Write a sequence for this structure.
């Protein structure tokens, strides 16, 4: 055999081998697809099947009056099974459906038509029409579209639901409401009450389709999720907005690093407002941590702690407020360290009351050192009785624990330094709780933030006011402390916030900041107190850290914030002051009872009765009546046009409801007949949409 024939034979043998191999492959494909197709299809489906969790809808968080602070809103991803619709319906409506998809999601109608037809021809039972999430109203609209209106079983439309957390009041009380991430870690109420809010997840069978997408199988084996419970807080939206706005305004004014405010109801311990703002890298302020409550808020309180020191002193010794103490020339040496007073040259010899009101560091340091030097444990025992040495047992996770060093770690200067708020650390909430106890006649209340756990309108759990201590000190001591706290505002370091309408009682605080083990010229300023002082309803604390400029003390920085908040609360809460009467009412027997309302209605009535009435401006719509000689003059009554609470006193209930509800307020009415006598929100104050205003008619 020559070489040519040998090569040809080998080529033919190789070709024959390839043909046989290809034939074997074709046979195997045919065998798998047609002879064993069902078996492998079933196995593939089983491999791509998985039981997965179906998330429960998270519960809502409400304010004290039922306003939503946080809720879960449903959003949907639109999928489609193009194999479901019958042939005639599909042919007749595919163009219309494609056009509507194009208008909603942006691609051309040709794109959607081709995508759906191709998927139908290939028998694909689950395709996403868009990655965009749609809201509930859009979902309802799409359910009316061609083919989709036949529903899931006859039309093939599939809406996959996912919940998104939504805050109707945006960033108001942001850190208090908190968050929860995908790893079930977070902060605030969302994290602390997660076991109630989360509900119980269900399970369902899902099949993996193209890419990483899964489609529900709905084979009847699914376990339905149980939605979470709702929680109702003590937060008052009006007071929260007032507090947060005042704090932000003063933080900007003083360029401070951080600030926080807590407003508490004296008798119940309910927290009505809590705000924490920090200066961010972009220069703006936002809530990133709860300094009022958490461990990052632990700081040396400064002079606000003098309340505790004087309480211990007055309990231990029979001291009168008129007794005197020599503070010298403004400097006093304890061992190698000096205590200084703010006033250059010192206060000299002053009374115990003056020492508190003027916030003399030397006075309280000498008094505490002389009284407790031989038995410092007794001083700590008093602090323990006051409830400032242990956590409060607050409802939110992450509460800061008071840091008071044990006596074995003390030096000779620890006790006098501690007397005016150095060498120990408290959170603002701890300090406020002590001041609130004084306002509450010595009864210390645990701060309360969540009132109840609910399922629709049924209460599952209720959290009531809890007493930490029935009496933190004697009545005699309490009376003296109240006098001194009022004196701070009337005559002392906070006299700049005194006013004639109501009394404030409280204490300023200014402490140097400890950074890297050294005290620097940066100040932690505060004011804690309560109002009205003669019948306390609210207590509050304001803290501002590292204010810039020439005003760097608690009296100049924190106290004005307290007053601004207190003034607005006083204006909103008519129960705290005498009812504001109409300045002038028509005399009986001369004029009909005309006070306020719609000008056209009132003018028509008076013209019919023959009573002269006029105004300087003819275009007035809402007016208030005043008497001028023998006629009625109309004065403007148009606060609602400026986003303010309208003055509806003297109006008929019909007119009052019209004005208030169009301003966005929820109206609660007490009484049956007559005109509006009083309103709970002060006329001319900012109208907060969704807030409640109470009217008394008679």
């Amino acid at each position: 055999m020559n070489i040519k024939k040998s090569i040809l034979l080998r080529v033919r043998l190789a070709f024959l081998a390839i043909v046989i191999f290809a034939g074997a492959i074709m046979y195997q494909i045919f065998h798998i697809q047609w002879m064993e197709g069902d078996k492998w299809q079933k196995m593939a489906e089983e491999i791509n099947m998985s039981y997965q969790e179906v998330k429960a809808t998270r519960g809502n968080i409400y304010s004290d009056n039922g306003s939503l602070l946080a809720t879960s809103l449903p959003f949907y991803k639109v999928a489609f099974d193009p194999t479901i619709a019958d042939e005639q319906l599909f042919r007749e409506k595919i163009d219309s459906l494609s056009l509507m998809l194009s208008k909603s999601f942006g691609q051309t109608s040709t794109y959607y038509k081709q995508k759906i037809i191709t998927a139908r021809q290939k028998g694909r039972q689950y395709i996403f029409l868009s990655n965009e999430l749609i809201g509930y109203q859009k979902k309802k609209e799409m359910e009316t579209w061609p083919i989709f209106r036949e529903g899931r079983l006859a039309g093939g439309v599939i809406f996959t639901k996912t919940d998104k957390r939504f805050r109707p009041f945006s960033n108001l009380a942001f850190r208090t409401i908190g968050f929860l991430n995908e790893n079930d870690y977070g902060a605030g109420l969302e994290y602390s009450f997660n076991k109630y809010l989360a509900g119980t997840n269900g399970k369902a069978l899902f099949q993996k389709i193209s890419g990483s997408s899964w489609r529900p199988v709905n084979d009847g084996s699914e376990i339905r999720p149980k939605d979470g419970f709702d929680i109702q807080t003590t937060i008052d939206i009006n007071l929260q907005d007032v507090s947060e706005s005042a704090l932000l305004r003063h933080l900007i004014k003083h360029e401070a690093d951080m600030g926080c405010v807590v407003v508490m109801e004296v008798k119940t311990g309910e927290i009505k407002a809590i705000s924490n703002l920090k200066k961010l890298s972009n220069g703006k302020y936002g809530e990133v941590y709860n300094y009022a409550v958490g461990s990052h808020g632990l700081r040396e309180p400064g002079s606000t702690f003098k309340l505790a020191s004087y309480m211990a002193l007055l309990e231990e010794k029979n001291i009168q407020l008129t007794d005197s103490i020599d503070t010298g020339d403004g400097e006093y040496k304890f061992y190698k360290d000096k205590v200084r007073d703010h006033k250059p040259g010192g206060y000299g010899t002053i009374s115990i009351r003056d020492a508190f009101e003027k916030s003399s560091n030397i006075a309280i340091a000498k008094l505490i050192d002389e009284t407790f030097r031989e038995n410092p444990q007794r001083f700590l025992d008093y602090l323990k009785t006051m409830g400032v040495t242990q956590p409060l047992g607050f409802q939110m996770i992450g509460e800061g624990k008071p840091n008071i060093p044990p006596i074995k770690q003390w030096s000779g200067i620890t006790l006098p330094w501690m007397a005016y708020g150095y060498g120990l650390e408290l959170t603002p909430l701890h300090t406020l709780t002590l001041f609130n106890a004084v306002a509450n006649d010595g009864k210390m209340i645990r701060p309360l933030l969540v009132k109840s756990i609910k399922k629709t309108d049924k209460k599952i759990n209720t959290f009531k006011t809890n007493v930490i201590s029935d009496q933190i000190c004697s009545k005699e001591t309490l009376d003296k402390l109240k006098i001194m706290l009022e004196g701070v505002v009337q005559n002392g370091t906070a006299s700049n916030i005194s006013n004639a309408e109501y009394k404030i009682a409280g204490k300023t605080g200014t402490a140097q900041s400890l950074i890297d083990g050294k005290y620097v010229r940066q100040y932690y300023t505060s004011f804690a107190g309560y109002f009205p002082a003669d019948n306390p309803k609210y207590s509050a604390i304001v803290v501002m850290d590292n204010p810039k400029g020439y005003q760097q003390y608690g009296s100049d920085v924190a106290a004005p914030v307290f007053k601004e908040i207190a003034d607005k609360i006083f204006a909103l809460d008519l129960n705290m002051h005498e009812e504001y009467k109409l300045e002038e009412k028509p005399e009986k027997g001369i004029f009909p009872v005309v006070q306020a309302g719609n000008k056209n209605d009132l003018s028509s009535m008076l013209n019919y009765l023959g009573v002269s009435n006029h105004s300087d401006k003819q275009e007035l719509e809402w007016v208030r009546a005043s008497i001028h000689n023998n006629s009625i003059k109309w004065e403007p009554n148009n606060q609602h046009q400026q986003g303010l609470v309208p003055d509806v006193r003297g109006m008929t209930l019909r007119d009052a409801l019209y004005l208030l509800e169009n301003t966005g307020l929820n109206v609660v009415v007490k009484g049956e007949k007559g005109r509006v006598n009083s309103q709970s929100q002060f006329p001319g104050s900012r109208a907060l949409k969704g807030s409640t205003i109470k009217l008394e008619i008679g």
Notes: The radius of gyration is 37 Å. The CA atoms of residues 648 and 656 lie 5 Å apart. Residues 580-587 have pLDDT under 50 and may be disordered. The chain is about 35% helix and 25% strand.
